[in-house]
Amino acid sequence: MRAALFQMTSGIDPAANAAAIVEMIARAKGEGADMLFTPEMAGYLDRDRTRAAATLRCQADDGVLAAVRDAAAREGLWVHIGSLPLKDERADGRWANRSFLIDDTGAIRATYDKIHLFDVDLATGESWRESSVYGPGEQVVAADTPWGRMGFSICYDMRFPDLYRALTNAGATILLAPAAFTVPTGQAHWHVLLRARAIEAGCFMIATAQVGDHADGRTTYGHSLVVDPWGDVLLDMGETSGLALVDLDLSRIEAMRGRVPAIANRRPIPAQVTLA
Fold first, then answer.
1. Class of residue 206 by CB neighbours under 10 A (exposed 0-12, middle 13-18, buried 19+)
2. Which H, E and C letters describe 98-155, residue by residue?
3. Which of 86, 164, 203, 254 is 20 to 30 A from 149 in CA distance terms?
4. Is 3 helix (H, G, I), strand (E, B) or coil?
């Protein structure tokens, strides 16, 4: 499988973000890619909630999604949109942070809403409260592709290994973790968490990231990664935006799982802890 990763610096103009993704779909196809992967919040990245409320649309009316679907069909390329912020039909009015798997005819094959929401106060003075704006997803999602079963996660999800345990128990062999990581947490945890998730799952991990200084004032870490089932980093895109391609030898999944059969050796963990 030849994977193309688009490391983005998404801004507050959905049309501009959509145009950038459409351009990269064509470039990726021209360079022989089988599938293009984008980061979390690929279509719109804005922490000004008032401005975002006036800009966001529901899934049926989202212009970025429509443009990407058209381009995927035109170029005959599978696309994973890491996520789009969308107005949802939740009773509490919160929005959705939703991934999309789009096939080479432009059809939506799967969607996933981010389960774990990032609520934190950092020592730098930054404060994030995702749960005040976004509602959590309630379903673990995996989908079949011509290259194997892909398991979905978004950004902060990577800190919760139970999600990946469920995905690999369901047969996932490629894990997706699009992100918009802050710089301090990225420097401390990005590489080690993604390598750990790939190793314990015996899976490829594709983690496409936002990077750089954004129009809403935030800075993201970058370093989009592809990690193989042994934990080796096949691609690290560093701190510049752009397109990169990497070939995945899918036979390594079975080979690495044979060397360390952690999935086959799993046992149910009792819910009750014995205090000695």
1. buried
2. EEEEECCCCCEEEEEECCCCCEEECCCCCEEEHHHCECCCCCCCEEEECCEEEEECCH
3. 86
4. strand
Residue 155 and residue 239: Cα distance in Å, rounded? Answer: 17
Say if CB 73 and CB 109 are below 8 A apart: no
126 is catalytic: no
Look over the chain and give the mean of its residue pLDDT values, rounded to a whole number. 96
Alpha helices per DSSP H over the chain: 14-30, 49-55, 63-75, 161-169, 183-185, 191-201, 251-259
- What pTM, to 2 d.p., does this model score? 0.96
DSSP state for residue 48 in the 8-state scheme: -
Told to judge if 31 belongs to the known catalytic residues of this protein, a careful annotator would answer no
CB 190 within 8 A of CB 178: no
d(CA 118, CA 146): 33
**How large is the average pLDDT for residues 140-145?**
98
pLDDT higher than 80, residue 127? no
User: In the annotation, is 29 catalytic?
Assistant: no
The radius of gyration of the chain's CA atoms, rounded to the nearest angstrom, is: 18
- Per-residue pLDDT tens for 36-55? 999 999 999 998 999 999 99
Paired strand residues for 148: 145
Among 40, 75, 87, 203, the one annotated catalytic: 40
How far apart, in Å, are the Cα atoms of 163 and each of 30, 74, 141, 168, 170? 35, 34, 10, 9, 11
For residue 101, list its beta bridge partners: 80, 110
pLDDT of residue 5: 99
- Find the helix packing angle between 161-169 and 191-201, rounded to 10°: 30
